[in-house]
């Protein structure tokens, strides 16, 4: 585990500023992410966590300008070093950038391969669509990556999707993302179809490749266990907002946002103590029920006061490299044994 102690933004490969995405539901637009500002520094793995529906995949897709109808990027910018302003690229430029400069694995991408072509042919298709000259070299690299993921490289490249298990396909999704030497790697739930042992092996390879290539990596997951093993920095999302962002170890040991604290408490794998693991009570809001004013977490928050109803807290740095969006006193949140409202455990 190579956690770093700062989020040093000076070298950020990816700079997201005030990014907002709306989805249209029955004629009305709702923000799925709102004013997200986040740096993905080079050489660091950023974990993006939060409950289902908090906007993690929406943010990951927006980083590649891949939001489709009924959604749209309605504000903000995404700057990627060497690529430029991603939100301003033409469709053709985007196709060139996605899969090469920006490697990505979509959520459930294990189900989205071409059923009619072998994996090897799909690697060649990917290479041709990005004007790769050395196609045998590309296949060689794909095979090598697959083998590092614990797969039989030759066999999987000769296989069709239906001949592979979900876990094998998930690992191949990561091979596809890495094979063109991307500098930015975005992985949305990359290990959900894997058993615990394969998960650990795949996380180890992701870490190795990340370090060898000095990548900027974003791993989206709802599994705090995964991020605690691999991430240098953590960003926590709730109701389409980043509510806390900082060095992973510091954030896990001393969460400073009530939501992060509750999320960690709800994860027995982190605390290592089943008895003290608390269910996170209540439900996260959906797009139509996210509060339009005030703090989005206030209804489930043990620290909420009147000010949380009246004004939305800004995501502000309270110590170098560590930001949070909360009106409550940092020391109080960190030291209080308070559990969220309505705790039933
Ligand atoms: N195409 C769409 N049309 C309408 N609403 C959408 C669409 N895609 C996502 N949403 C809504 O946007 C919100 C954020 O969804 P998103 O998929 O980004 O969440 P997530 O954090 O990735 O969740 P999960 O952990 O379940 O993958 C949710 O309320 C979701 O219902
Ligand atoms: Mg998702």
Write a structural description.
The chain is α/β, with parallel strands linked by helices and 345 residues long. It is built from 13 helices and twelve strands. The strands form two sheets. It has an eight-stranded mixed β-sheet with strand order 6-7-8-3-9-10-12-11, sandwiched between helices. α3 (119-129) packs across α4 and α6 packs parallel to α7 (196-212). The longest helix has 17 residues, at 196-212. Bound molecules: adenosine-5'-triphosphate and magnesium ion. Adenosine-5'-triphosphate (ATP) binds at residues 23, 25, 32, 50, 52-58, 70-71, 107, 222, 286-287. Belongs to the ABC transporter superfamily.
Could you give the topology of this structure?
Blueprint: E1 12-25, E2 28-41, E3 45-49, H1 56-63, E4 71-80, E5 84-85, H2 91-97, E6 102-105, H3 119-129, H4 135-148, H5 153-157, H6 166-178, E7 184-188, H7 196-212, E8 216-220, H8 224-230, E9 233-238, E10 241-247, H9 248-253, H10 258-265, H11 268-271, H12 306-310, E11 316-319, E12 322-324, H13 330-335
Parallel strand pairs: 3-8, 3-9, 6-7, 7-8
Antiparallel strand pairs: 1-2, 1-4, 4-5, 9-10, 10-12, 11-12
Helix pairs in contact: 3-4, 6-7
Bound molecules: adenosine-5'-triphosphate and magnesium ion (MG).
Magnesium ion (MG) binds next to helix 1.
Domain ABC transporter: 14-264
Keywords: ATP-binding, Cell membrane, Membrane, Nucleotide-binding, Transport
Membrane topology: Peripheral membrane protein
CA-based shape? globular
Number of helices: 13
Mean pLDDT: 88
Distance between the termini: 32 Å
Strand order of the largest sheet: 6-7-8-3-9-10-12-11
